[in-house]
Amino acid sequence: MLELDQDFPSGVAFVQEWKAIREEALAVSRQLNDVPRFHEIMPEQASISANDGRDWRMYILKAYGVEQPRNMADCPKLAALVRKSPRVLSASFSFLGPRKHIPPHRGPIRGIIRFYLVLSMPRADDGSPAAVLKVAAVEHRLDEGQFLLWDDTFEHEAWNGSEEIRIVLSLDVWRTRMPIDMKLFSSILIRLVRIGMRVRGMG
């Protein structure tokens, strides 16, 4: 796992404001049927989003450097934090539905690290967090207000063992201290993703 103070110092502000961010996420959740499923945004991700017929919805405020103006306007606190953090390439609320399992997968871009902040966590029968994030074979049961920062190219998966929705803030963050070849290759991949977004009318 990565260290916030070394790898994403701006992340401290998101952690400090997690309750205000949660209120914006809960407001979005009240009209959850209007929030698209992940594979409806990115059909190529159907293998991890549409794999079991259960819901995984993503409310995107910013994707690979491209803001979604309406969503940013609806979440002013989060939008302000994102705009103050130029290394944040993508920002979204992730709504993991009851009993949903996201199978193991890896991010394709070495130049991106993932920041995961829990906003609303359902409970198991014993009172522990009911949703799990597994990264590099290690299971993490994080509570509300807790976070994880990790290399997105490590294999990871998630599942919700409850009948309620798990909500997290997910940020893709531009990595610092990259070798020049990694930086160049990552920049090329991000440009290709942006081209795909424009084709879908997202940018």
- Helix fraction bin: 25-40%
User: In the CATH hierarchy, what is the architecture at level 2?
Assistant: Sandwich
- Low-pLDDT parts are none
| Overall outline | globular
Would you state the CATH class? Mainly Beta
**What count of helical segments does DSSP give?**
8
User: What number is the mean pLDDT?
Assistant: 92
Within the largest sheet, what's the order of strands?
A: 2-1-3-10-5-8
Structural class given helices, strands, pairing?
alpha+beta
- What is the C-alpha radius of gyration, as a whole number of Å? 16 Å
Give the biggest sheet. 6 strands, antiparallel
Give the percentage of residues in beta strands. Answer: 25-35%
How many β-strand runs?
10
Name the CATH superfamily classification. Answer: B-lactam Antibiotic, Isopenicillin N Synthase, Chain
**Cα separation of the termini:** 32 Å
- Domain module count: 1
| CATH third-tier fold name | Jelly Rolls
Order of helices and strands: HHHHHEEHHEEEEEEEEH
Properties at a glance:
six-stranded antiparallel sheet; 8 helices; alpha+beta; globular; single chain; four-stranded antiparallel sheet; Jelly Rolls; about 200 residues; 10 strands
